[in-house]
């Protein structure tokens, strides 16, 4: 099985190498037959090839069985005309990876608030407040005059319905509770449409309780009572922001796995950014990308009815948890002494 590996910027190469250490061991032990195809993207590709996303990478992604994408220093990219293409946004729209699935689970005991968290966010990934993916042609941000800027938000029936359906399917096999996050008190038309579609999908899942919460209250309630939430469904930007909050609640930004999934493609991607402040120093926590890769294996297991892939995903997650259980086997962001490489070797050594 061919997996395209795109290390990206900042800590991307560090955490990608760590992830492959774990996956290589899993592939050998469980006979998964994983093969890597590495391609350069990001600032290094810009320097050498004039673009952060060389066109051949799109073809390679199309031909691969799955993609592992490191974080990107998008804030440092030049404009698109000067070669700065956000590969993350590009893959999400081109391959219609409409579901960004982001679990947050306490892995170090109760986190910031002293309360455990165990939830999963289903974030719509292809429209919403992200103006860069809203238009058929051209960008969704405009400079009307020198001192007036406008950004468009798109919300459609199709995208709202499908993310709601994936979220309800997940809720049906978890604690049967779903929370739809919105701001329909202000965005009566656009968030109103999103909520209308969620309610329609809810009719097909009578066993799942639907709760609707306004996004600003949601930010507070997540801190106050995290276990009240099981599956959360939200438009793009609300989901992006709340998932960082949930990740931090679970113990830290470096802990949350994430996949971007469509009907026929899946891309594993850490929840956090490229952390340029600690890049290349063997200080990054690779858990987020390792767990993302495990989620990719699980996604492939379901699509291919391949139980070995599913079992490998479970064992990787268990090995991460067992490693993190020992405070002396944690990386610096979690107050531990381990470097990125050493942590990955510790996780790999626990696979049996
Ligand atoms: P960030 O997530 O990169 O970092 C925030 C803080 O968390 C920093 O102190 C960083 O050191 C720490 N951190 C993040 N991941 C960590 C890890 N795995 N281990 C240890 N510490 C970790 O957010 P930022 O600083 O706001 O953004 C940096 C760059 O990343 C920007 O260019 C931004 O555009 C980009 N970004 C990319 C993605 C992506 O590629 N998916 C997502 C968010 C931000």
Number of DSSP strands?
12
Instruction: Identify the overall geometry.
Output: globular
Distance between the termini: 21 Å
What's the helix-strand series? EHEHHEHEEEEHEHEHEHEEHHH
Q: Regarding quaternary structure, how should these chains be classified? A: single chain
Structural classification: alpha/beta
Molecules bound to protein? nicotinamide-adenine-dinucleotide
Spatial order of the strands in the main sheet? 2-1-3-12-11-4-5-10-8-9
The radius of gyration over CA amounts to: 20 Å
Low-confidence stretches: none
- Tell me the major beta sheet: 10 strands, mixed
- Helicity range of the residues? 40-55%
Overall pLDDT score: 96
Strand content: 15-25%
Total of DSSP H or I helical runs spanning 4+ residues: 11
Structure, described:
- The chain is of the alpha/beta class.
- Helix content is 40%, strand content 17%.
- The chain has eleven helices and twelve strands.
- The chain has helices spanning 12-30, 43-49, 55-63, 87-94, 157-172, 190-202, 215-224, 236-249, 287-304, 307-324, 340-349; strands spanning 2-6, 35-38, 66-69, 99-105, 118-124, 141-145, 148-151, 177-182, 209-214, 231-234, 259-261, 266-269.
- It has a ten-stranded mixed sheet with strand order 2-1-3-12-11-4-5-10-8-9, with helices on both faces.
- Helix 1 runs parallel beside helix 11 and helix 7 runs parallel beside helix 8.
- The longest helix has 19 residues, at 12-30.
- The mean pLDDT is 96.
- Bound molecules: nicotinamide-adenine-dinucleotide.
- Nicotinamide-adenine-dinucleotide binds at residues 11, 71-76, 88, 253-254, 269, 272-278, 284-285, 288, 333.
């Amino acid at each position: 099985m061919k997996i395209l590996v795109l290390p990206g910027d900042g800590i991307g190469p560090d955490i990608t190498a760590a992830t492959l250490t774990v996956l290589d061991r899993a592939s050998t032990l469980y006979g998964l037959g994983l093969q890597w195809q590495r391609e350069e993207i990001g600032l290094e590709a810009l320097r050498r090839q004039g673009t952060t996303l060389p066109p051949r990478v799109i073809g390679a992604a199309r031909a691969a069985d799955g993609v592992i994408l490191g974080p990107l220093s998008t804030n440092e990219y030049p404009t698109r005309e000067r070669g700065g293409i956000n590969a993350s946004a590009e893959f999400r729209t081109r391959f219609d990876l409409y579901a960004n699935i982001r679990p947050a689970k306490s892995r170090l005991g109760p986190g910031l608030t002293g309360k455990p968290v165990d939830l999963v966010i289903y974030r719509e990934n292809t429209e919403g407040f992200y103006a860069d993916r809203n238009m058929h042609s051209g960008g969704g941000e405009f400079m009307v005059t020198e001192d007036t800027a406008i950004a468009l938000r798109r919300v459609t029936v199709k995208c709202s319905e499908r993310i709601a359906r994936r979220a309800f399917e997940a809720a049906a096999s978890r604690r049967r509770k779903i929370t739809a996050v919105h701001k329909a008190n202000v965005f009566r038309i656009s968030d109103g449409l999103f909520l209308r579609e969620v309610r329609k999908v809810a009719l097909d899942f009578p066993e799942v309780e639907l709760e609707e919460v306004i996004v600003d209250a949601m930010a507070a309630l997540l801190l106050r009572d995290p276990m009240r939430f099981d599956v959360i469904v939200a438009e793009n930007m609300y989901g992006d922001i709340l998932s960082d909050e949930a990740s931090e609640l679970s113990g830290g930004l470096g802990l949350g796995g994430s996949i971007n999934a469509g009907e026929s493609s899946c891309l594993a991607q850490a929840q956090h950014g490229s952390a340029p402040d600690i890049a290349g120093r063997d200080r990054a926590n690779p858990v987020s990308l390792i767990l993302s890769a495990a989620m990719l294996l699980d996604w492939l297991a379901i699509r291919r009815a391949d139980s070995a892939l599913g079992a490998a995903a479970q064992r990787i997650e268990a090995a991460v948890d067992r490693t993190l259980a020992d405070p002396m086997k944690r990386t610096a962001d979690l107050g531990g002494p381990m470097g990125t490489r050493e942590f990955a070797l510790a996780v790999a050594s626990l696979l049996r």
